[in-house]
Amino acid sequence: MNAHTKISEADERAFLDAIDKWIEKKVAPVAMQLEHADEWPADLVDDMIELGLFGALIEPKYGGLGLDAKTYSRIVARISEEWMSLTGVFNSHLMMALIVQKFGTEKQKDFWLPRFASAELRGALGLTEPDAGTDLQGIRTVARRDGDHYVVNGTKSWITNSIEGHACALLVKTDPDAVPRHRGMTMLIVTKNDPETGKPMAGIRNGRKLGKLGYRGIDTGEYIFEDYRCRADLCLVGGEEGQGFMMATGGLEIGRVNVAARGVGIAKRALKEAVRYAQIRQTMGKPIAQHQAIQTKIGDMAARSRAAELLVEDAAAAYDRGGRVDLEAGMAKLFASEAALENATEAMRIHGAYGYSKDFILERLYRDAPLLCIGEGTNEMQRIIIARQMVARNPA
Ligand SMILES: Cc1cc2nc3c(=O)[nH]c(=O)nc-3n(C[C@H](O)[C@H](O)[C@H](O)COP(=O)(O)OP(=O)(O)OC[C@H]3O[C@@H](n4cnc5c(N)ncnc54)[C@H](O)[C@@H]3O)c2cc1C
Description:
Elements: H1 9-37, H2 42-50, H3 69-83, H4 85-103, H5 106-117, E1 123-126, E2 142-146, E3 149-160, E4 167-173, E5 185-191, E6 204-209, E7 220-231, H6 232-235, H7 244-280, E8 282-283, E9 286-287, H8 292-321, H9 326-350, H10 362-374, H11 379-393
Parallel strand pairs: 1-4
Antiparallel strand pairs: 2-3, 3-7, 4-5, 6-7, 8-9
Helix pairs in contact: 1-3, 3-7, 4-5, 4-7, 7-8, 7-9, 7-10, 8-9, 9-10, 9-11
The structure holds flavin-adenine dinucleotide (FAD).
């Protein structure tokens, strides 16, 4: 089983109500302006710390909420209905935390998890490099053992939370010549400041903040390591080299459920906006909702939204039962991200010129949705993973 607290339906409702109220009061009034300005949402991040979201999936004994994936994915979907970027701030952080929670030594869990749950250290997942994304085994960042330390050199790119965050679960090569390649891969926890003294560490710095089509407000950038030294007892996750690839791919399953939940949020919001606008906008003497061409769009959008939601519930339930959920998480991620993209496009068409206007949310949904088809394993790769699982689970 994945470690989590199964909260009662009443408690889940109360928590989701609190999230809804926060979204309405605090997020909705500022999301558009912050997103257009590509401004870090400092006050909203403070609110999310207060709500406990940085510890959402961390066990209560370490100070987290220990929520199950079902409740967590509902939270992510609701926030994404208003502003998807916010979910990236705590989700990448939680992927880092889950790597420690699932695979760390007892000492590492006791050391890192309370700091992650309280958001004293907010973090990132550092896999991608300028020359390696899908082909993770092609990374070049190297960590060399030197006594009780590791010395890290290399560059990571496209790392969300790398600029505003303080820590990172970093995939490195400890044996660049290993065959197969994944046997030489290791996961480290690295920090910008010494986690005990708070003093800045040498050899770790940010490169460029990357400009993006959507998913703005949240920072995505480069991490550069030049003879960066970290303590092996704290930074080598699980105390053993060669396990990093497995940890990265294991960590990605909840990431895929999260991306799928974001897709649900965008697909549902696009549908809501379309249904509302189609009743208000009149052409040829009647609301456009009465034109068949618009009705077929809304029919497809509604079916896609609900199907995406059900696939996410299914994947979250499978994750909560424990074990590998590549198939369920992959199907949810593939379908919900494509649903988000299609619904965002259709809602924009239904709004005509207003869909293209920066005064309305449609253009933002349209810019945010494509990321979901790329991140946490591209949809091209999801199809391959799903097919492999179908064959593996159904031998002829
Ligand atoms: C906004 C944003 C935020 C991100 N945040 C993070 C983060 O926090 N941490 C992190 O580590 N990474 C992050 N990423 C990187 C993301 O995970 C990668 O972009 C993704 O894994 C794809 O890698 P790539 O961009 O190198 O594409 P490539 O791997 O170069 O792929 C290019 C194309 O080829 C296809 N392709 C590649 N290999 C195959 C194959 N074997 N079969 C079929 N098709 C294939 C891909 O599907 C894609 O269409 C982020 C990316 C973006 C855009």
